[in-house]
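Page 47, continued from p. 46.
Same chain as before, 64 aa.
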Amino acid sequence: MNSLHLNIPKSVREILPDVAHEIYKDAYNFAWEYYCGDDEKSHKYAWKVVRRSITEIILDIKSH
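Result:
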């Protein structure tokens, strides 16, 4: 799968807001290069980045 043309899986599109789609795609593309095209590792990394980003957003909202 070419990282520049990643089709975000339906399961991701359905549960994440649009801004998270971009975070997921950017993280996936980075991981795709880093892990030499390993799709499974790239998806796992992308989910980790999305979770971390959402957690940071929630904590920031709660602190204001």
